[in-house]
Write a structure and sequence with these properties.
252 residues, three-stranded antiparallel beta sheet, 9 strands
Length: 252
């Protein structure tokens, strides 16, 4: 599946109702030319032209609160990394690599990705080659787990945290070095250097925070609105996995 990248007039958006496997592409408009298919995005919610587009309207509706302390945060609170919550017998990391890379090759079967090319990485705009064991490609949580912890996830049960950590709506294959400059930043503190991708990136963050009922800080909301006002027709990604992981999964 080939994804359209920054600067294209349309954005290929993945539709994943429950699993990554069997996704279909839906082409959605983007007046600014800044939207590209967010690898983490599912089907899109409708959004009209003008200032009241779906992504901007959703950002404006997010709950605003102060950032809670990071006290108690641990990656294990979100379960083991890359759990197969969609039960397709492939771990989540390989699911996303299969979805987002081109020229994919496997090691034994159709799960373990050994090679692929991230064509026009959404964060940097450059092409990145993935080889298993190399750190040149990361799977980014578009809404960082630490950020989520400080904005509501601290109070969730384990099933919801595990779901967030493995939801394709919140995951994207990206250039590792660019991603690591992000840390656990939100829209107010970090945006992709590739300006052509910013509207799609912020729309994806809004979609995840809306789906999981996470709040935003005042500065974050203002930053989201500032970006989305430059692309008023930007639609809101939807879909992904359920917001509760199967009972068999546990978190620390």
């Amino acid at each position: 599946m080939r994804r359209l990248r920054g600067g294209a007039a349309v954005a290929a958006v993945l539709m994943c109702a429950v699993t990554v496997a069997g996704c279909k592409e839906q082409v959605t408009g983007s007046d600014s030319g800044s939207g590209v298919g967010s690898g983490g995005a599912g089907a899109t919610a409708g959004g009209g032209a003008g200032k009241g587009g779906a992504a901007l309207a959703a950002a404006e509706a997010l709950t605003v609160k102060g950032r809670a302390p990071k006290t108690g945060y641990d990656r294990e609170k979100f379960g083991s990394a890359w759990a197969d919550t969609d039960s397709n017998s492939c771990d989540t990391r390989d699911d996303i690599l299969k979805r987002d890379l081109e020229e994919v090759k496997f090691t034994g079967g159709v799960c373990k990705v050994s090679y692929g090319v991230l064509e026009s990485d959404p964060y940097s705009g450059k092409d990145v080659t993935y080889r298993r064991g190399s750190s040149k490609v990361d799977i980014d949580h578009i809404v960082a787990l630490s950020d989520a912890w400080q904005k509501g996830a601290k109070y969730w049960d384990a099933g919801k945290r595990i779901a967030l950590a493995n939801d394709p709506l919140n995951l994207l294959a990206v250039d590792a070095s660019t991603n690591r400059s992000k840390g656990d930043g939100d829209t107010a503190t970090w945006l992709p250097p590739n300006k052509a991708y910013r509207c799609t990136y912020v729309a994806a963050q809004v979609a995840v925070k809306k789906k999981y009922e996470l709040w935003v800080t005042a500065a974050e909301k203002s930053a989201m609105e500032k970006v989305l006002e430059t692309c008023p027709a930007q639609k809101l990604p939807a879909g992904g996995n359920p917001t509760k992981a199967p009972e068999r999964f546990r978190a620390g």
